[in-house]
Design goal:
alpha+beta; 2 domains; 232 residues; Bacteriophage lambda Replication protein O N-terminal domain-containing protein; 41% helix
């Protein structure tokens, strides 16, 4: 169940919202905010929106379709299809929700469009998506390499941000091996063993595989230290 959604004051100054054709489209965008999942995704089907968003307002599916097209043309949402189902995504949702708590959110079950399209796509026609990947336009998301990184990473938080960070980094096989080796070492550290683990996107953006690992005491070193401290 979505929790902790807020509407920032600067929404009143949004040029994109002001440029929309109708107040109905503005209302839809605002009412989507408390209903989208942790990645900013929701059904893009007019019937679903009619039943779950405009529950008490008499809006036809044709009217809702025009609202969605208007929002997509303005770049306020990405409107796309996957396996015959329509979805929408608010591109800057996580940036505008500083109080979002992943621990209180269910994992998203909606396939995401790729990060490059999130930044560049606009238009009123829903984009076709195959499986969990948008049709490629230019760059290709290397899902094989990303999966090799993400699967062993012990904290599964905000996968969308991790994908974006990984593709921005675009590591080759050699760098990926270095990253994975560092990851395995860090997983054994005292900090990570105590559950203090950065989000995967934070780890990638901070190039944390280059962190110097703290020295681990041997049993002899620990004995000498405790003896000097008068504890044994």
């Amino acid at each position: 169940m979505p929790q902790g959604r807020i509407v920032l004051k600067r929404i009143c100054q949004s040029r994109k919202l002001a440029a929309l054709k109708t107040d109905g489209a503005r209302l839809l965008y605002t009412w989507l905010l408390p209903n989208v999942d942790i990645n900013g995704c929701f059904s893009g089907d007019e019937e679903v929106i009619k039943g779950q968003i405009f529950t008490r307002l008499r809006k036809s599916t044709k009217t809702i379709n025009s609202y969605l097209a208007d929002l997509a043309s303005a770049g306020l949402i990405i409107w796309y299809e996957s396996n015959g189902d329509r979805f929408l995504h608010i591109p800057d949702f996580t940036d505008k929700q500083p109080s979002l708590n992943p621990n209180k959110e269910a994992e998203s079950t909606i396939p995401m469009p790729t990060p490059d399209l999130i930044q560049t796509l606009s238009g009123s026609t829903p984009l076709k998506v195959k499986g969990s990947k948008v049709k490629e336009r230019g760059s290709k998301v290397n899902t094989v390499r990303f999966d090799r990184f993400y699967q062993p990473y012990p904290r599964k938080t905000n996968k969308q941000a991790a994908v974006k960070a990984f593709n921005k980094l675009n590591p080759d096989d050699a760098l990926l091996e270095v990253m994975l080796a560092a990851l395995e070492q860090q997983k054994l550290s005292d900090q990570w063993q105590r559950g203090i683990i950065p989000h995967p996107a934070t780890w990638l953006n901070g190039r944390r595989w280059t962190d110097e690992m703290p020295h681990e005491e041997t049993s002899d070193e620990q004995f000498d230290r405790l003896k000097k401290e008068g504890k044994i």
